[in-house]
Design a protein that fits this description.
This protein is of the alpha/beta class and 363 residues long. It has two domains: 8-100 and 113-240, Aspartate Aminotransferase, domain 2, CATH 3.40.640; 246-362, Aspartate Aminotransferase, domain 1 (Alpha-Beta Complex). The chain has eleven helices and 15 strands. Strands 1-9-8-5-4-2-3 form a seven-stranded mixed sheet, sandwiched between helices. A three-stranded antiparallel sheet has the order 7-6-13, with no helix packed on it. The model has no long low-confidence stretch (mean pLDDT 97). The structure holds pyridoxal-5'-phosphate. Residues 59-61, 85-86, 88-89, 131, 157, 159-160, 181, 183, 193, 195 line the site of pyridoxal-5'-phosphate.
Length: 363
């Protein structure tokens, strides 16, 4: 058997007629920038998430940048986040001249552990960025309490968790601002780069809309220093089709995750399965397990036609680009240990039962 990790080609074939017609329509009308498909997508994203504002943008990375610019993060500020995430979370903090301040993760969910947070808050701390890793929101009540106590803003990095929930709210309604990515391999992916920012705050929404177009308030009049951060109309056209089928995709990802867990629920301390807190639902961007002797296992699985991936092999505090922050090995032991053991199995809405059986048997 040869298994596809994200199976994007299967998905394209499934919706081919609709998606190709939508792309062709944009090509023929030539409204490549801020065409009607963009407004239509933003309306549908609001309806889907329940957030008051959905502002599409050029990527998940730019969504984070726009969110931090909107709350005025600037050089000298400190922003608390997790070291166990994709680089973009902390990179955007550093790009604004602020300092990423890391806090270790929870051993079960792999998300930031709020119990470690208060110890690192200083006069310079301005915001907290929890990441909903692999699709599951972090411990939001505890994070919100800390943010309230110290007057901090909360920005959700929901690049992997679009459509997940925390206590019944979609992750787009968590924090002051919530960001997502439509990178092709994300649960809701477009055909290139794309992202969105969500908020329920009128002033923040207005500022983000302006920052997305070079801080413009009126054509060629610039209130802020912004970025060129719009979503292409073609990407919006693709997303308009895919969003219609997204609730079914989310359900199928959940079913695949349940099947994996049922099948792998063996008493085997060499295998640690994903844990989803009872207050949350995951978008299952990844189904990631912890194993010993990961590299050898990956090789053996590859020989059997089972692709795997590692999200992520090196925590951010140990990355060369953040050497200047002065962290060292041992500072965040849980993130360090998990990064040595974590391994993602194929996950997509089209995984067949027999494929899951095959993968689990090989494991
Ligand atoms: C946690 C996290 N944050 C941010 C990003 C950045 O998103 P994008 O690739 O759309 O810029 C990603 C996606 O790769 C991610 O997984």
């Amino acid at each position: 058997m040869k298994i596809d990790f994200a199976n994007l080609s299967y998905q394209h074939n499934l919706y081919k007629e609709e998606i190709e017609a939508a792309i062709l329509k944009v090509a023929r009308t030539c409204n490549f920038i801020m065409g009607e498909e963009v407004a239509q997508l933003e309306k549908s994203l609001q309806d889907f998430t329940g957030a008051k504002y959905a502002i599409s943008c050029s990527s998940g990375t730019d969504a984070l940048l726009l969110a931090m610019m909107a709350i005025g993060i600037q050089p000298g500020d400190e922003v608390i986040t997790t070291p166990f995430t994709f680089i973009a979370t902390a990179e955007t903090i550093a790009l604004l001249g602020a300092k990423p301040v890391f806090v270790d993760i929870d051993e079960k969910t792999y998300n930031i552990d709020p119990s470690n947070m208060e110890a690192v808050i200083t006069q310079k701390t301005k915001a907290i960025i929890p990441v909903s890793l692999y699709g599951q929101p972090a411990d939001m009540d505890a994070i919100d309490d800390i943010a309230k106590k110290y007057g901090l803003k909360v920005i959700i990095d929901g690049a992997q968790s679009f459509g997940s929930t925390y206590k019944g709210k979609t992750d787009s309604n968590l924090g002051d601002i919530s960001c997502t990515s439509f990178f092709p391999a994300k649960p809701l992916g477009c055909y290139g780069d794309g992202g969105a920012v969500f908020t329920n705050d009128d002033l923040i929404a207005e500022k983000i809309k302006s920052l997305r177009i070079h801080g413009q308030t009126k054509r060629y009049y610039h209130q802020y220093v912004g970025i060129g951060g719009r979503l292409d109309t073609i990407q919006a056209a693709v997303l308009n089709v895919k969003l219609k089928y997204y609730p079914a995709d989310l359900k199928r990802r959940q079913e695949a995750a349940t099947k994996y867990s049922e099948k792998l629920k063996v008493k085997n301390e060499k295998l640690v399965l994903p844990f989803v807190d009872e207050h949350t639902t995951s978008a299952w961007a990844q189904y990631s397990i912890r194993v010993k002797d990961r590299e050898a296992l990956q090789e053996r699985l590859k020989d059997k036609g089972v692709p795997t991936a590692v999200h992520y092999p090196m925590p951010l505090h140990l990355q060369a680009c953040f050497e200047y922050l002065g962290y060292k090995q041992g500072d965040f032991p849980i993130a360090e240990r998990v990064s040595q053991e974590i391994m993602s199995l194929p996950m997509n809405p089209y995984l067949r039962d027999e494929e899951i059986d095959y993968i689990c048997n090989q494991l």
